[in-house]
Design goal:
The protein is an all-alpha fold. Helix content is 61%, strand content 0%.
Length: 217
């Protein structure tokens, strides 16, 4: 939207609220109401403004708002891997992969990869970090080959994306902005590292409409 419609700095909150309203309607079974979002802005915007900007966002995007994200591929990928989808192991793999996907969303370097590529690399990092590959006697190259065949993606890009995810996790844990590039086999994301990242995300998470939407004011 911002690439085709310049706005004032003072309108950013209104735009963000309108985008949140649209996203909630698109993704949530119980969307956040416009009135609740206005309340979250401390009534700094009006309902009429919010509705007008909702229409403006949709018009500028030509109603093409159902963007595919890496999260959309997770269940499809996990269902094609020999994992019990209702097991604790699968739940842990999904949680770790979701953590990696969230980290990728914060780094511009991953904008060059497709959503399916990021999802596949995140699953590979999660499975390898949880020692699924060694427990099931599936070498990492074989796992990557399986993911490549499932999604019909290029192996070179998949390996590169996996390496960058492992480097990003290491850099995030160490607090450095950059991490040295090493072979991915030597940079396996450990379970402890991922658990710490998930804990940090929980502690630093600010209350959002999704968290408190059931509270009646």
């Amino acid at each position: 939207f911002l690439s085709i419609c310049p706005i004032k700095k003072s309108q950013l909150q209104l735009l963000g609220t309108a985008c949140l309203l649209v996203a909630s309607k698109l993704r949530e079974p119980r969307p956040v109401s416009a009135e609740t979002l206005v309340f979250y802005t401390d009534n700094s915007i009006t309902l009429q403004d919010l509705w007008r900007w909702e229409v403006l966002v949709l018009a500028k995007l030509k109603w093409e708002i159902s963007a595919v994200t890496p999260q959309d591929f997770l269940c499809h990928i996990l269902s094609r891997i020999p994992l019990d989808l209702h097991s604790c192991e699968c739940h842990m793999v999904r949680r770790h992969a979701q953590t990696f996907i969230a980290l990728c969303a914060r780094d511009y370097k991953f904008s060059m990869y497709t959503p399916s590529m990021i999802s596949a690399a995140s699953v590979a990092a999660a499975l390898h970090g949880l020692a699924w590959t060694s427990k099931n006697n599936v070498p990492l190259p074989e796992l990557l080959d399986r993911l490549q065949r499932i999604l019909s993606i290029e192996m070179d890009y998949l390996q590169s994306c996996l390496t960058q995810i492992e480097e990003l996790v290491t850099a995030t844990m160490s607090g450095n902005s950059r991490a040295p590039s090493e072979p991915s086999a030597d940079r396996t994301v450990s379970v402890d590292q991922t658990e710490k990242l998930m804990e940090q995300g929980q502690h630093s998470k600010v209350g959002t409409p999704t968290d408190v939407r059931d509270i009646h004011f």
